[in-house]
Input
Amino acid sequence: MPCCSHLTWSTNEFKEWARQGQAALPMQSALPRTYLILVGYLTDGRQENKEKLVDGCLYVKDNTGIIPCELLHFELEWLESLFLFPSWSYIPQTDQSAAGYLEILVDPVPVNLVKKVPDSIPVTYQASAKTLLTSRSLCKKRSKLTVAGELTRCGPLLCIHHKTFFFLFLKCFASAVWVPVLVQKPSQLAWHHTLQLGRRYAITGLNLTSLKKSGQRMFVTSDSSCLLPYCAEQMREQSLDSAWQGESTQSSSLETAEQLSDILELRVEEERPRSTKESKIISYVGFVTKILNIQAGLFLLDNKVCLCLAYQQLLNSARGLRPGACVELIDVHLLQKPLVSFPFIVLGACLSSTVVLKSFSRLSTPYQPPASSGNLYLELLFRYNLGMPLYLWLVSLLETFEERFSCFFGRCQPLLRSMHRNPGAAEKFLVPLLRAAVPDTEESRDIYNEILERIHQCPLQKYVTLNPPCQAPSLSAVCRVAEQKSWEGFSPSQLLSPLEEQHMGTQELNRRLAWSYCTLSAGSFQPRLILLGVLRVSSRSSSLQLQDKSSTLSCVISHRDGSPFAHTALIGSLLQVETYQLVVERFLQTDFPSWEHLTNLEYVRQKKHSVYVQFYYEDVQVLHAAEGQIQKSLGRRNSSSLRKRDGGSLTSELETPEAKMLKLEDPKPDTHSDENCREVQSSARTTSCVSQLFLVTQKEGLMLRNYQLPGKDDGEGWELQRSFQATVLWLGRPRLWSHPREIGNLPELEESVSDGEEGTTRQEALLLFMGKSLRWFPFLHLNGLYRFIVPRCSDLEVFDKLCFPPVPVKFLSRSSCPLCLPVQDTWHLQHETWISRLPELAARSVLTGMDQRISSIPEVLSNSFTGSLVSFSGKIVERTLCASPKTEKPSVTVSVQKQKGSLLASEHTVKLSVSVAPGSPVVLDVYIASTYLQHLRGLLPGATILFQNLERKISRFRNVYCIYIASSCVSIISLPASRLPFPFSPAGENSSTSLVFLSSLQPHLQSLPQARILCHLSCVLTLSLQWVCSLCSSIFKEGRCTRHSPPCPSHTGVRQASARVLVEDGTGEALVLCRNQHVAAMLGLSLLEWEALQNCVQSRGSVSVQHGEATGTGCVEEPEDLIACYLRSLCRSPLICRPILLDFSLDRKPSKILQPGPLQLRNFRSDEVEFVSQVGPRLRLLCLNVKEVEQDTLSYLNSKRMRRTSSHC
Output
């Protein structure tokens, strides 16, 4: 523990000393006092270990050991002398296994010190010495010189290529001439501790030398050199032929914290964003108040200034720089706001700066030495010659990286270690970012020019305030920011069309607002956001997750080639994703009376959201493979292995059940990893395992089923269990392996191919997944070859013993009744390959007798299709929320789901309109009840989905649709394009419409989603304008609902309009149903005319007009109703009959079901020309949009139609 000893102090003196130390940092405690006598030799460590690199540090030794020490005052005569240390402090390291160091508070008392008095010494002064340095020729035979002068600068200790040295600069007593002296002899490195700026020294035995690269000349010490204090009586000048006048060195004034604040206030007006600024060189004295990052060399002074020592080498391991210590900084660079997000002013020490420790800390603050090797902070700093802004950004990224993921891999796998040819996870993450941020023209750092040049140049001299190009925040921060962006500026009216919302009733209006989504990419954030996380899979949610110390983020992963994601080997790996879609599903519970109240957010009763991310596996970079975790478990438990496949990919095959549960089951990373690191290898355990290869032929969805978990009693406490099941085909027989490493590449298939199809052992089984085995749900897919591995097992009948029949034994002979096998929590699932990637012979031997059919959407829509359960794939073109059918029986899972807080109300059903491809006319509707949506992610417009085992149904209008049932399952094949709708919409973008003929629609009645025709409006058959109740849809008249039994409490009405018109295009006729704003377009009314007409209807409640087509039909005349007369005359006006461009869809619920009939001859008139054409029965269409056609557009479209007609003839 830390302590201090003051042999000559009284108790009151010690208390006053401790009190003064605590005054600066009240939250810290003072060093405890101990009463110990310390006696030892002062040494520089040269004689202890001759092979050890002498680093210039001082030590105290005796016959029991040696310990580093720091002194505020040191004399060279003290080396190798015995001392009594009356006042000292012992500071241990934070790592208990490593020794600490001593802080010598006062000068030691010598026991056997002998001083040497030098004789008269010939000396050369700076003016003459400078002439030697600047002469053209370097005389190698010149005798050694002695140079005297005032110490004007002392550089830091440097270690380059395993050689330690430093520079000092002596100035002439009478002028500004100075000369550099290189000190590199191991016996002379201790000079660095005794040199004091402003003192006068004489150095003997100097030689002249020059740098090979730049040719710069300097003096260098020899083995016989001595450092002596200058004494004029003992020095006699050694004259030279000429003298030299040089330039002065840079000077700086000493600043305090208050003076520094004044300087910064004056510089505020000069700041210009993104402009190159030049740092100011100052001197500063302050107290260390906090160690920001010892590995990065960052310290906080006076709680307001950041000191960066990274550009110097801390070879003394930063001993003495503890909170509470006082330091003097000479010729350091002042940088104001180098990084936008950095809160402190920065003082950067370059190689021309001097850092002097003025006093030691009196506090019991910890000491953690920086890493002497493998320090990634310094490695990247010097490799890319980073300026201060980029370095501070690098430090922030590394600090966040280590904080988020060190708990997963522990101290056994340091993520920030920089190793030769084996970069760690952090280095893999940062190197590409630094290469993109650092200009290619950036020159390497020349430390000798930085030290020796008269005109100072260093990386800290000029800088530009950096706005970080990217960020990698914690996952909790990602979810928080995504949530903020999804609700930022949100208005419910954004989700609705302004023309449609005016005609919606209360239920439809609030249902349309109940579910929406928002998609965000990396570029949606400023700066660009990079996702980092350890891939996990949770048995609670049965979903893939990215995890760090702060939180988890559910994810959906796909392959660009359309194959499902099944890489079990990636579990536990650290992933980096830069191209992704962050999806925020938004759930609103609202009770808006009508569209007029959408701006009043008081009607929003509850807001919830769900955040997940989806990306492609090809966009993932593995920063840290699960290999490290697996190998660690191998060393401890001998129960895991890692092998390479033919393709070279790493495959995690097995871990012990305990490790797997920690790894897969929502671990608490800040606790379990430390336990793993402390865990000691137990007694030898068996490493044998049993494996079974199988092929997935069918997979059912995740839902609540009437299953009971093993080990639970039936009866009390019974509840539905969340589970899923899969039908598989066993391939070969179970195999016993002495170690998982020995598992080969599909030996079962190799034997089946060599023995022929008769020798293949094939048996179906129904796998039941419950409890912790639910973690395998995201990895198990149709047509995938997998292997179950049972750890620490040697029983080849382990699978047979756990099987049980689903039906009585007498029915087991039927092939349709496979055995049921509950998957155990400790089993490991390993994906091998896909059946489509097997060699043809092996695939044929596996697929013999199997009927695996994936239908196409046109086949499902075909009238000749006979199957009741269908599987198909398609792209979602629209997602809408609709009311559940009233005839649907309430699900038994509804009550359970409500208890668990479902995000979507149970009375809702999602309708997915699925097509073969964008713009395809073939569309199939899929209905999914909200009770199944809890575990389904990625169902967004634009996504390609594989639907399995949906129930195919035909409505009474002969429309084919599918519903999601208990045996159904969906898989995400491809993700939506990055350009998703924004603002948020329940539906995707409408596909482009194509121009068609009415006669060509007959073969596609069941599948046409939207099309366009150029047609002629013949007449308006019916017209109805109503003012209805927003709650019950009854007639709303004079400000109240007309329903009396029971009375309706609503006080809000909405406008609704409908019309049925007859159109023809020369090839056929169609009845078109128009609603609301499309009625005004059909009638050719402007917005003002339409608004005035609807205002007149409000007092009447409703107005209807019918135009009879045959004898004996017509409307009920009301001559006194002016609105009805106006509408009647408008509908009969010849101005209504005009060419229009009509976007439409099929009326799938017509009032009269269309019966096929023979073609009939009909007369058509175009201007003055009358012609006859064969037409079929009138189609019934829904109007989507109406556009007026100009004469030029009409001529162009007619000519286009004529060309299409002639090409088909």
Notes: The chain has a mean pLDDT of 78. The radius of gyration is 42 Å.
